[in-house]
Specification:
Blueprint: H1 2-20, H2 26-38, H3 44-71, H4 77-98
């Protein structure tokens, strides 16, 4: 049973990362949502691992936005601040959900 749980956890992480890159369809999203509703609980170890991954991903996103702002004139300060706030707010929601 633990192997099935590990596979399910891996699939959830893979889906989340693909979603971050915009590589999922609405059908895939609905399928994943349905699956999560049916099996909403992760083990404590899986949840800690998931939260560590999310923290890393959100920090990487903030670093990328900051790098783009510093490297080019194409990203205005207002756009930078808006993106940075949205990333931080999304992180707060995810971390609160996982707490």
């Amino acid at each position: 049973m633990a192997n099935a749980d590990s596979q399910e956890f891996k699939e959830a992480i893979t889906f989340d990362l693909r979603s971050q890159n915009g590589h999922t369809t609405l059908r895939q999203f609905l399928s994943e949502w349905r699956r999560m509703v049916q099996h909403p609980d992760y083990t404590a170890d899986q949840m800690r691992e998931l939260m560590a991954i999310y923290r890393h991903v959100f920090q990487a996103e903030r670093n990328y936005v900051e790098q783009q702002y510093n490297a080019t004139a194409g990203l205005s300060e207002d756009s930078f601040n808006q993106l940075y706030r949205e990333i931080t707010m999304a992180e707060m929601v995810v971390l609160e959900y996982g707490a």
